[in-house]
Amino acid sequence: MPRPVKYRTIGQMPVYRSFSSDDVADAETVRMSVDEFETIKLLDGSGLTQEECAARMHISRTTVTAIYNSARKKVADMLVNGKQLLIVGGCCAYEPLEMQQKITGKGTTIMRIAVTYQNGEVFQHFGQTEQFKLYDVEEGKIVNEQIVDTNGVHHGALAGFLKAAEADVLLCGGIGAMGRAAVAEVGIRLYPGVEGSADEAAKAFLTGTLQYDPDAHCDHNHAHHGEGHACGHHHGGDCGHHHEGGHRYGDEECNRRRVEGECARDNGECEHRHEGDCGHGHCHTK
Q: Is residue 106 domain-resident?
């Protein structure tokens, strides 16, 4: 029987997860795990010794050496060959993020919905959001609401903030591929492409009528002339959030299972499939 992999302790989720050369279009991708990134951050960025790094990550010094050597080869491959570097995955356990404001604790029977928030609306750029509105749900009803500041936390590190805030579900506007990866790593269910009132979005989620776009993206185009930051919701053809081959739901049983976290819709295993138009004006991909 193979030895179980020991989780490596990570101080903070990477803020930036994608790096590429401006000189190469459609570059080949190199994937670096978060624990590999952590060794570079601690050894090269913070100047720790390998023994100190091993103590921080709760692994042996020889394991640090192996992870670090792998990470450096990937950095060299990116720099020498003009490849894109993505920081994703790894056998990691994250240290609790120290919150700068008090967030109401939630019990085991509470589901917490987090919504990117600005002036009552769903903020459209996940990585730049300065606030989340948290909705605590019990027995299908919102029992508490709270607005929290991100305190300068941005991009991929926001996933760590949401984990510390005990969020179970995220409703947002546009979100990039690396933001999606970070949210998935901490086990939060994602519903992107949401627009309009944050309060109404939370209520719509609970009733199974939320309009969202699973393909909503967020591109950061920081070019030399400052084209800026573009977010978009991509749909093929005439889309009203009806995706062919997807999962339609809306009957009371399926909605109950989804709200209470019992429905396996997100991994495509939910048995509650509805033929034709279920009458709820939305459809979700597997």
A: no
Residue 65 belongs to domain spanning:
8-94
Q: Is 269 within the bounds of a domain?
A: no
Are both 144 and 209 inside the same structural domain?
A: yes
Residue 167 placed within a domain? yes
d(CA 57, CA 94): 10
Specify the number of domains making up the chain.
2
Q: For 121-170, what is each residue's pLDDT tens digit?
A: 999 999 889 999 999 999 999 999 999 998 877 777 788 888 888 899 99
Residue 164, domain member (yes or no): yes
